[in-house]
Amino acid sequence: MKEYGVLIDSRDAQPYKTVVIGTQTWMAENLNYEASGSKCYENKSSYCDTYGRLYDWETAMTACPTGWHLPSQAEWNVMTDYIGGEGAEGRKLKYFGWAGTDEYGFSAFMGGNGAPAGFGSLGSSGWWWTSTVNENNIIQVRVMLHDFSYASWTIGLKKDLYSVRCLQGY
User: Fold this and answer.
1) Which of 87, 138, 143, 166 is most buried per CB count within 10 Å?
2) How many CB atoms lie within 10 A of CB 54?
3) Has this prediction a pTM greater than 0.70?
4) What tens digit of pLDDT does each residue of 100-129 get?
């Protein structure tokens, strides 16, 4: 069984499970810190309790607690390489209920996403911001689908709403 640590967010006393994967310490749940620029899926607080909040990119960049940060694409890739590559990442990191083994205790939930037009994909996909911006000023986003074993990269617009997983360190 995977051993978890605990992080208590000093801003709101919210506890988060943490997990060591290779040389990195990750939050083992999506961030649920209420900040301007964040929302619960469909604006229902019950969804935040399970899936955490969804953040626009500007908010995501500063939403992690002190001592933690929004990971870059390169930092995600360190974890991906450690667990055996993109072809296995979705299966090994997803929570059991979404065709996953949660082998590393990351417990990825399919929390969906949001955009100015509304919300979508709850239960079918999980989307996580990174701090990496490409040459076209578009942000790299990690995506996992509930019924596929791989994870992939896509792009997001700063106004979109995605989940945040924080990584320890600066």
Assistant:
1) 166
2) 29
3) yes
4) 899 999 999 999 999 989 999 999 999 999
User: How far is residue 93's CA from residue 90's CA, in Å, rounded to a whole number?
Assistant: 5
Three-state DSSP state, 131: strand
Burial of 61 (0-12, 13-18, 19+ CB in 10 A): middle
Helix intervals (H) in the chain: 45-51, 57-63, 73-83, 86-93
Of 36-40, 98-102, 152-156, the range with the lowest mean pLDDT is 98-102
Strand partners, 15: 8
Provide the residue type at 43 as one letter: N
End-to-end CA distance of the chain: 29
